[in-house]
Design goal:
- It is built from four helices and seven strands.
- By secondary structure, it is α+β, with helices and mostly antiparallel strands.
- A seven-stranded antiparallel sheet has the order 2-1-5-6-7-4-3, sandwiched between helices.
Length: 158
């Protein structure tokens, strides 16, 4: 069942959520078919989601790049707003792949500003989020949406 179009977020609401909200949930599938759902910090540029992650989600996405991401806000049903995207993830395996991604630098600057003070006091001039490929499984994940569904329960008028 599709959601009514009148409940959808508009493009400005989507851009605001994708560039300012702190958490995205990424769902991948492990080798046994179990869903691995993990909240992550993220960036948005060039119509793609960028996540710097490690561990099982990277292993899962190497094997099966199909996944779903969700950004949502508010807890009460009448105030719920969300963006759910289904698509394909690409793992940037090394510095060469990172350098070839045209939007990564923009995302690193965006994330440096967005998460400034996330684990400590904010600084006046935040540095870009400069993580890079490390070890076996610390990698940038670049998610390209293929289907997007949004909803804004404020529009229900409850």
């Amino acid at each position: 069942m599709a959601l009514p179009k009148e409940l959808a977020l508009d493009s400005e609401q989507m851009k605001e959520m994708l560039t300012t909200d702190w958490n995205i949930r990424i769902a991948s599938v492990d080798a046994e078919g179990n869903i691995n759902l993990t909240p992550m910090w993220f960036g948005w540029a060039g119509g793609k989601v960028f996540i710097y992650g490690r561990g099982q989600k990277v292993v899962n996405l190497r094997r099966n790049p199909k996944c779903t991401v969700l950004v949502d806000r508010n807890e009460r049903f009448p105030e719920l707003q969300a963006i759910m995207m289904r698509g394909t993830a690409e793992i940037l395996e090394d510095a060469e792949a990172e350098a070839a991604e045209p939007h990564l630098n923009e995302v690193q600057v965006q994330m440096g500003i967005k998460y400034n003070g996330g684990h400590a006091d904010p600084v006046a001039d935040p540095k870009p989020f400069a993580s890079t490929a490390q070890g076996r499984n610390r990698r940038w994940i670049v998610f390209t949406p293929e289907r997007t569904v949004t909803w804004d329960n404020f529009k229900l008028g409850l």
